[in-house]
Amino acid sequence: MSGFHQVASYVPVSYSIGGLIVAMANRDLIVLGFVGFVTSFGAHSVAVNLPTYAHQVGVGTLAIGLLIAVYDFAEVIAKPIFGYLADRRGQVKTLWAGLGVFSVASMVFPVIDPRLLLAIRLLQGLGAAAFSVISVALVAAYFPQSRGEAIGKYNALKGAGYVVAPAAGGFVVATVNFAGLFVVTAIVGFVVLAFALSLKEPAQPVDYDDDRLSLRDFLAPFSDAVLMPWYVVIVVNMFLVGILFGFVPVYLNSIGYEPFEAGLILSAGTLAYLAVQPLAGRWADRYGGRVTVIIGLVVSSLSTVFLVFAQGVLLLVLVVLGGLGIGVVWTNCDAIISDLAKEGRLSTSLGTAGSFKEIGDMLGPLTIGAVSQFFGLITGFVVCGVMGLAGTTLIVHRKGSDNREAH
Fold first, then answer.
1. Is 185 in contact with 46 (CB distance < 8 Å)?
2. CA 356 → CA 274, 363, 388, 391, 400, distances in Å?
């Protein structure tokens, strides 16, 4: 079964590849979906192969953590800025510029000193910040009467990048070299940019909540006592995401797995993470959002603790369980934030949640990289897994007063 076919299994409306193709007949939606694919493929195809790069240039786990984190750091800082520029200068133009910066930066790496990879990853992250946030905004603008359905289809194509990236990236590195991975990434970016040139500015302006609200309104969710525990849980979950997709490859490399083998294992974990998300909403309806979030966080945290003591089939099972756990938390936290958001602040609250996601994704690799540098990989995984378990204490005792906690 192909990776794309498996990704289609979690699309909210159509659960077969044939249904997905029919449902996605709109060309603009397909183009924007592949713009999202560039984001996920570009980030993860490089991240899972950083152990090879580290061996080539002679750097340690802290450097790997920095190289993963700088991409997310660029997105945390740049997304609101590019949203502001797009609102005033044009959404499509901003998307084109982001794809261009990302693709050019990727093409440059093979011809420069490989020790400058940190700068390249920063430029890639800046470009991705522009086209990732604007591609979602354009989906919302193009399909005002069916935004939820359209964004679900967009996420299906974007999610294919997470599934394909580890195995495809590992194959390129194994058959060519690490620099060849950036050539492939650049080609993908330029091809998608060529198709994106057909996109038109929306007839109606998009409401960019992050840019149009006053500073006071923008900062309001950060001080919301009801939302804050859930924001922290989002940080913890993304902390574990960064470890699963960033440092599990480091562990696999340390115990002798080849890049392609490691990529296949990571693809299984990624597929589990993606496929479980539509089911997570159903579980929340039946058992409650808080309960499913706690279960998901416990499962992913325990998987992080124990996977460094496993090999073979058991290791694969633990990686898959980790993917399932973080997928459940990802979906249900967004649903809970939506339910708990004050009237008139839904988009602002979800936007704030998105910022916390990027922060958590950045902190995970940095933390485990630093701990592992000084105390070893096993200690790094165990410490970070225990930190994930500690995050459950923030919501274990929260009751129904938090309003409805599921879809």
1. yes
2. 20, 10, 15, 14, 24
Give the C-alpha separation, 94 to 91, whole Å: 5
Q: Sketch out the chain's domains with CATH numbers.
A: 1-212 (1.20.1250.20), 214-407 (1.20.1250.20)
CA 54 to chain centre: 23
Query: Would you say 367 and 360 are in contact if contact means Cβ atoms under 8 Å apart?
Result: no
Residue type, 283: W
Token pair 């974990």: residue: 269
Contacts by 394-399, CB closer than 8 A, 24 or more apart:
394/229, 394/232, 394/233, 395/229, 395/230, 395/233, 395/290, 395/293, 395/294, 396/294, 398/229, 398/290
- Return the axis-axis angle of helices 27-47 and 147-175, rounded to nearest 10°: 40
Say if CB 64 and CB 368 are below 8 A apart: no
Place of tokens 């990989």: 377
Are 160 and 4 in contact, with CB atoms under 8 Å apart?
A: yes
Q: What is the rounded CA–CA span in Å between residue 172 and residue 45? A: 10
pLDDT in tens, the chain (407 residues): 333 233 333 333 333 333 444 444 488 889 998 998 998 888 878 888 888 888 888 888 888 888 888 887 787 777 767 766 765 677 788 899 999 999 999 999 999 988 899 999 999 999 988 888 778 777 767 776 655 456 556 766 787 787 788 788 888 888 888 889 999 999 999 999 999 999 988 765 444 444 444 455 555 556 778 878 888 888 888 888 878 877 888 888 888 888 788 878 888 887 887 777 667 656 765 676 788 888 999 999 999 899 888 888 998 999 999 999 988 887 677 667 656 766 545 445 655 676 777 788 778 778 888 888 888 888 888 888 888 888 887 776 655 434 434 44
Cα dihedral 379, 380, 385, 387, rounded to 10, equals: 100
Half-sphere exposure of residue 285: CA atoms within 13 angstroms, side-chain side: 6
Q: How far is it, in rounded angstroms, from Cα 315 to Cα 93?
A: 45
pTM for the model stands at 0.61
The 10 Å Cβ neighbour count of residue 342 is 13
Helices 289-306 and 377-391 pack at an angle, to 10 degrees, of: 170
286, two tokens: 């039946």
